[in-house]
Design a protein that fits this description.
By secondary structure, this protein is of the alpha/beta class. Helix content is 42%, strand content 17%. Strand 1, helix 1 and strand 2 form a beta-alpha-beta unit. The longest helix is centred in the middle third of the chain and has 22 residues.
Amino acid sequence: MKEILFLAHRAPFPPDRGDKIRSFHILRHLAARARVHLVAFADDPRDLHPAAEYRALVDECVIVPRTKSRLRAALEALATAQPLSVTAFAHRGVERAVRDILARRPIEAIYVYSGQMAQYLPVAGPRTIMDFVDLDSAKFAAYAEDAQGITRWMMQREARMLAAFEREVAGRVDASLFVSEAEARLLPGSIAIENGIDTAHYDPTAAHVPEVGQGPLVVFTGQMDYRPNIDAVTWFARDLLPQIPGVRFAIVGRAPSAEVRALAGERVIVTGEVADVRGWLKAASVVVAPLKLVRGIQNKVLEAMAMARPVVASVAAAEGIDHRGTIRVARDGADFVASVNALLADPVAAAALGKAARAQAIARYDWAAALAPLDPLIGL
């Protein structure tokens, strides 16, 4: 059986946030076809010791805590003329673990998940697949446009240096992958391997989906220390919610920042981490994704579609999703408010839209179909 080294910037399990969901399903797909050796970072101490059901997927599992401060990473980046995104993940323990596995095991392919891990690739070695997921240099370029002063300079530097790094990496691997066709077009010669959705898990009729209360409720889900999510819920709560009468807005997700916690009030619920996001999705009258600066296919939108919820998404959040009109795409704030109010005013139409969205999620975004193109790329 083929042996694969899988490198990830964040431990793939438990699959409880967007990037971990994609990496988990890819790892599980590969583990069903080959022996997988995992080396990954953990930025949550709970991820250092995966449950037995996850460890059983891999032949060996090396997870290293990521404790380097942002200040230290920034100083190293300036001293070495590298992107901060790379120095933040530079770790001698990970370097040793990769070297050790390559020396001990007959590794025939390396799967690299996220550009930060490309620094651990050997100069020459097995067939290598680089899953950039998103083009991070483009993301930092977008951040720079909205920044000022030293922050703007740092973002511009990061965008410029990451772009050179991404081009160099893409030039020496066997295949470069992105999460959508739009992202893949930004780096010539790349391939799109889209995200999928576990529609059996995200099933509103499943008996094990918890109940969290009744609407009318507008829901947003996501990792709440992630800047695009913070900006999205802040904009919605402060600027749009006052124009949507009679509903509460639930911000559902782990690690809410101080900015997000400050939004909590009579009409805004900030849940923090929840045991099961499906209950909140099931209770939602409308699910919103008002993201402005975001790249790639949004798992939060696919999850809401699979749960048969009516969704209103920004143009950026909907980009790359083949929804066939089963979600509402809002061009600006006024369009967002009008779309949400229209769905709240017509529950029958909202339910029909949600039903159509689930049917599209099942037909278009099953994980097995989404990941099938990986097999020939890796040589399985």
